């Protein structure tokens, strides 16, 4: 099976048979390196600017974009997500879709869009700046209660998206941003599906064979290119919750998946000391039901089954 999008540079633990595609170097990166040297020697006015924003540091990159730290008026630190050079039209559409979704979804657990621009044929999104993503943060082994609090917030973000009629479709640790030690926000709505719009335009939810997103966190029905809805995001959230709480990735091969009982008892032993998380193992296992009809209907309903974290 081939996946069309969502493979990111940070997917370092991908099995050897599914290595991310080699990314073509983007001229912006070389230009940025040169400008940085100049700025160091001769001052700020030599910083490379994109859509008026100076590029200060490269933060991350994915198949479709490069993300930099930048500075907005009044010294506010922001993130600049810039579409790659010679991006295919689909990449531009993807970022336009993402900017529109972010602009509509104003919620503390969804990354805030501050500005959107075009610069020399590239799309530029200006966003609030996070400290890191959930993958990097979890690697520092924070306390279990803090991990649960971040997962809960990410689920709140998904709930806001679902209420507004969006399915994220690419929920994974790299796409959850962490601010300090207390706030998480869902990012990367590039693959988000606007259910209302899709239904209006085509009367159906996906194109046949439309497989998008990252296989490792993808619901079974999504991998098969079937019609999906908010319940696909619940599978992804539960796979991310498993990984974050257990410090181990859920086997992407569904045939190798432990039984629901095995999953539940592993989670129970892990969370045994956390009395406020008593409902979590069953909730996570319920969201990992192979058949979507057996999962809660959306993130709001799943949230209701978790006691306050
Ligand atoms: N607003 C932000 N603040 C800080 N880091 C960010 C921000 N947005 C993205 N990043 C970093 O850049 C990486 C890629 O961004 P993402 O939006 O997921 O792009 P892509 O669509 O290319 O996957 C993220 O995993 C994250 O580490
Ligand atoms: Mg991403």
Give a nutshell description of this structure:
By secondary structure, the chain is α+β, with helices and mostly antiparallel strands.
Instruction: Kindly provide the name of the CATH class of the largest domain.
Output: Mainly Alpha
SS-derived structural category: alpha+beta
Principal-axis shape equals globular
Q: Which molecules other than protein and nucleic acid are bound?
A: adenosine-5'-diphosphate, magnesium ion
Strand content bin: 15-25%
Q: What is the typical, i.e. mean, pLDDT?
A: 87
Instruction: Report how far apart the termini are.
Output: 38 Å
Map the helices and strands.
Elements: H1 27-42, E1 49-50, E2 53-61, E3 65-72, E4 76-83, H2 89-104, E5 113-119, E6 122-128, E7 132-133, H3 134-138, H4 144-163, E8 166-167, E9 176-179, E10 183-186, E11 193-194, H5 195-202, H6 220-223, H7 230-246, H8 260-270, H9 280-287, H10 299-305
Antiparallel strand pairs: 1-2, 2-3, 3-4, 4-6, 5-6, 7-9, 8-11, 9-10
Helix pairs in contact: 4-7, 4-10, 7-9, 8-9
Bound molecules: adenosine-5'-diphosphate and magnesium ion.
Fold and architecture overview:
The structure is a single chain. The protein is α+β, with helices and mostly antiparallel strands. The chain has two domains: 127 residues, Phosphorylase Kinase, domain 1, CATH 3.30.200.20; 173 residues, Orthogonal Bundle (Transferase(Phosphotransferase), domain 1). The protein is built from ten helices and eleven strands. Strands 1-2-3-4-6-5 form a six-stranded antiparallel β-sheet, covered by helices on one side. Strands 7-9-10 form a three-stranded antiparallel β-sheet. Strands 8-11 form a two-stranded antiparallel ribbon. The protein starts with 26 loop residues before the first helix and ends with a helix. The N terminus is likely disordered.
């Amino acid at each position: 099976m081939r996946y069309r999008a969502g493979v990111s540079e940070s997917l370092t633990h991908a099995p050897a048979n599914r290595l991310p595609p080699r990314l073509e170097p983007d001229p912006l990166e070389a230009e940025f390196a040169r400008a940085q040297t100049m700025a160091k020697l001769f001052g700020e006015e030599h910083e490379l600017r994109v859509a008026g924003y100076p590029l200060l540091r490269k933060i991350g990159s994915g198949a479709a974009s490069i993300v930099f730290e930048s500075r907005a008026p009044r010294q506010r630190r922001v993130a600049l997500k810039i579409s790659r050079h010679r991006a295919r039209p689909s990449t531009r559409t993807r970022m336009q879709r993402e900017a529109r979704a972010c602009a509509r979804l104003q919620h503390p657990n969804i990354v805030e869009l501050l500005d959107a621009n075009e610069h020399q044929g590239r799309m530029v999104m200006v966003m609030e700046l996070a400290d890191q993503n959930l993958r990097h943060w979890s690697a520092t082994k924070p306390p279990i209660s803090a991990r649960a609090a971040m997962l809960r917030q990410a689920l709140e973000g998904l709930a806001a998206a679902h209420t507004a009629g969006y399915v994220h479709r690419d929920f994974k640790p790299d796409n959850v941003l962490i601010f300090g030690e207390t706030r998480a926000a869902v990012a990367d709505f590039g693959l988000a599906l606007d259910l209302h719009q899709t239904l209006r335009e085509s009367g159906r939810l996906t194109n046949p064979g439309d497989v998008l997103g990252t296989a490792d966190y993808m619901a079974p029905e999504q991998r098969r290119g079937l019609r999906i809805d908010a319940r696909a995001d619940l599978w992804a959230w539960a796979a991310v919750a498993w990984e974050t709480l257990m410090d181990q990735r859920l086997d992407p091969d569904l045939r190798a998946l432990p039984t629901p009982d095995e999953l539940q008892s592993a989670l129970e032993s892990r969370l045994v000391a956390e009395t406020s998380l008593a409902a979590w193992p069953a909730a996570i296992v319920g969201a990992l039901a192979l058949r979507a009809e057996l999962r809660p209907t959306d993130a709001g309903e799943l949230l209701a089954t978790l006691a306050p974290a």
